[in-house]
Amino acid sequence: MPIIQINLLEGRTTEQKRKLVVNVTEAVVKSLDVKPDSVRIILQEMTKQDYAIGGVLAVDNKG
Amino acid sequence: MPIIQINLLEGRTTEQKRKLVVNVTEAVVKSLDVKPDSVRIILQEMTKQDYAIGGVLAVDNKG
Amino acid sequence: MPIIQINLLEGRTTEQKRKLVVNVTEAVVKSLDVKPDSVRIILQEMTKQDYAIGGVLAVDNKG
Amino acid sequence: MPIIQINLLEGRTTEQKRKLVVNVTEAVVKSLDVKPDSVRIILQEMTKQDYAIGGVLAVDNKG
Amino acid sequence: MPIIQINLLEGRTTEQKRKLVVNVTEAVVKSLDVKPDSVRIILQEMTKQDYAIGGVLAVDNKG
Amino acid sequence: MPIIQINLLEGRTTEQKRKLVVNVTEAVVKSLDVKPDSVRIILQEMTKQDYAIGGVLAVDNKG
Questions:
Q1: pLDDT digits (tens, 9 = 90+) for C10-20
Q2: How far apart are CA C44 and CA C1, in angstroms?
Q3: In what order do the strands lie in the sheet with F51-53?
Q4: pTM for this one?
Q5: Of chain D's two ends, which shows fewer C-beta atoms within 10 Å, N or C?
């Protein structure tokens, strides 16, 4: 029954997302002792105009 | 004052969304005894690359 | 597959929540043509110290 | 460490978002006495088909 | 219409939350040119068992 | 920079949460090639009165 939302910057390939949901599901299953089928993951992509650290948009971050 | 977020797979028409927000608002109003105008609904569409059950992306689900 | 989160002020009884999830599930099922079992609802109660409209906490709202 | 998500209707310029994250970060820093670098902001744009008040989608609101 | 959710570690006083919602509302109003009454803020307190950076729960962080 | 929210039913020990955040962080780091310190996890516990599948609260689920 765990429901997981992952916010990440845009630009990952479907292959990377595939790996991500496999690995996170496995991590949750072995940590909480739940069935794989009960794990739901929502990926939420953010553009670089839509994420900021310390008041600086990712698009403006030259660090 | 209830704030409702609904995550759903992409591909619904505006007409379906129209029906959805009418019906959900009505359901909330009659269950919680609040005024319709206090109910806010956010629809969040997910692509099939961005939702997984049991570690399988919706785009890969042949079930 | 719809995942629904409802933020509401604390103080509802279990009976009210029971009614709420039945009615909202029904509303989603008939609007989106999905199976009841695919609908997941998370209720998130907020204290009156944790919700504000127009910069005023619910606990301070004498309106 | 505060993590802030702001849902807003689409259509803001990058310049407006830039101002928004600067001002909100500043507001959080001075209210909670945290370091600017610990403040993370996620902007989530909604289309007018994806937001409703009182059961009416923003796209249908002629008010 | 902006809906803002702020996740913060538990332990703030009501007075601090009062200041926080006033200041954040003001920041949003002046950045987006919206009316104060349209700004809704949800505060979500996390215990130190419920927040982690780099795989370390806040309760275990001796840094 | 990934920000992860995990909704789970209440009742896990701190030790289980410790394992969960270690394992999920590791899964995200190896899948997305990000630094561990950039991964933030929020755990959100739900009571059995606050989660429903198919219109049935977890507290009422005798399945």
A1: 999 999 999 99
A2: 19
A3: D56-57, D51-53, B40-46, B3-9, C3-9, C40-46, F51-53, F56-57
A4: 0.96
A5: C
